[in-house]
Amino acid sequence: MVIKHCGNYDVIICGGGTAGVLAAIAAGRAGARTLLIERGPFLGGVSVMGFYPHSFYASSGKKVVGGLPQEIIDELVKRDGSLGHLRYEGGHLYALTPVDCEILKVVLMQMVIDAGVDLMLNSLIRDIAMEGTRISTVIIQTKADTFLASAQVVIDCTGDGDVGYMAGAPYHKGRQDGKMQPVSLVMRLTNVDLIKLANDIPTETPVLWAHKPRSKIKTPVYIRGVLTPWEGTPEYQQLFTDKNHQIFCLAPWATDVTVNTSRLVGVDGTDYKELVQAETASRIQIFRIYEFLKKYIPGFAESNMVGGQFLGVRETRRFVGDYQLTEEDIYAGRKFEDNIGLAAYPLDMHDPEGGNVTFTPIGGDGSYGIPYRALLPQKVENLLVAGRCLSATHRALASVRSIAACMVMGQAAGLAASMAAEKKITPKEVNIKELQKKLRAQGAILE
Ligand SMILES: Cc1cc2nc3c(=O)[nH]c(=O)nc-3n(C[C@H](O)[C@H](O)[C@H](O)COP(=O)(O)OP(=O)(O)OC[C@H]3O[C@@H](n4cnc5c(N)ncnc54)[C@H](O)[C@@H]3O)c2cc1C
Question: pTM above the 0.90 mark?
Fold first, then answer.
């Protein structure tokens, strides 16, 4: 086997998903020689599945996310790819930010290229090599070749924490008994009568209506419904394990909807066999759900299934960092001396046993800080983590895994990595005040 060298970098970002893309843009713009490695053919990870990054505002109405995440929304708005931040009265969130996930893919790709980042797509991080407590080499497998790359700082943005795991950084998985939040596969349906749908489905929070590009009337943009009226049907009993099963319909488009309602429990997203089983079972499950929706709910009667995404994994490894974010921090709306940004998404817990989804609000002003220490895993000195593999408890992750918070972490990790590389120090040695100053100058909100 011939192994090729693809270079020595200041910063390597492993995983071009929600957090990784922002880390790459931040590091590239700061002047670091940056390599971004993504196993898939596009950037954005779970953020481009069709969800809304809906926690730019705290429940109190305070704006909590600015910086690069806001720049992305601004860029989307310019391209008719987002309706911006829409006030959502009476719901569990203060505002919703509908985005068109296909245009988001384009915007993220463009911003990464413009930041001068070297990009590897369809490239799996297969292994790493260590020199003492440092990651010296990242080993990348493409269809044709195996590559080696090295960097002063490596950022693990793989969601599952693959790189930290390979490097021996300590981690936790799931709650005390090891159980994790369920996985879901979302589908996109077209030719949906959204107005009829809003009348058909009972909701726990109000339907959000908005004018969409090229539309003269307001149509539903967010429906958080329940399938309670159909509980007696044989299909419901075969498909769902809970009562009042929730269905989230996200529609930034005139007649298309991303439907998030499928669910499988007991899947470990880091176990290959379980993943394959879950991908196959979910693919079959979403088609049966589609048939069920068409049969019973008039708004879906004429719909077509035009897309099914890849398996959405909510939770796997969480590293043990210099600080572990806890649910108590979130309930208290706690801020930290080393805040790198704020988060404001309520604890969104999908029952690991197959019960319902619950939302628990955040205390204080409705926001809490994300401490830099939660991005610093133990035992690997040149590694930072960002995204859902940060250092947090199982319950805290149910909040901080939101798209906006992962983007906030990405921006901070990219900037911190570039500072560490420039000064030839470890991420732990980065001057937090200097990092915070740079983040504020980029529009990030830290308090
Ligand atoms: C079903 C579901 C619904 C959700 N709904 C919402 C919502 O409505 N709003 C909200 O704010 N949040 C929502 N979330 C949460 C949020 O989307 C995720 O927690 C967040 O996007 C995770 O970001 P990340 O950067 O940690 O991981 P990801 O976005 O998953 O990025 C990880 C990237 O790393 C790549 N990768 C992984 N391993 C390797 C490897 N070995 N080599 C190379 N590349 C690799 C992956 O391909 C991926 O692109 C939802 C999550 C799920 C699963």
Answer: yes
Give dist(CA 382, CA 96) in Å, integer.
37
pLDDT score of 215:
86
The mean pLDDT value for 99-128 works out to: 98
Fold designation for 3-49+102-178+316-342+368-441: FAD/NAD(P)-binding domain (3.50.50)
Helix axes 101-114, 18-29, angle to 10 degrees: 30
Which residue puts its alpha carbon closest to atom 39 of ligand 1? 158
Return the structure tokens found at 310: 């890849």
Chain segment 163-215, per-residue pLDDT in tens = 999 999 999 999 999 999 999 999 999 999 999 999 999 998 999 999 998 88
Report the separation in Å between the CA atom of 122 and the middle of ligand 1, taken as the mean of its atom positions: 16
pLDDT category, 356, cuts 50, 70, 90? Answer: confident
Extents of the domains making up the chain = 3-49+102-178+316-342+368-441, 187-308
How many Å apart are CA 106 and CA 75, to the nearest integer?
10
Ligand 1: residue of 13, 43, 46 to mutate (most ligand atoms within 8 A of CB) is: 46
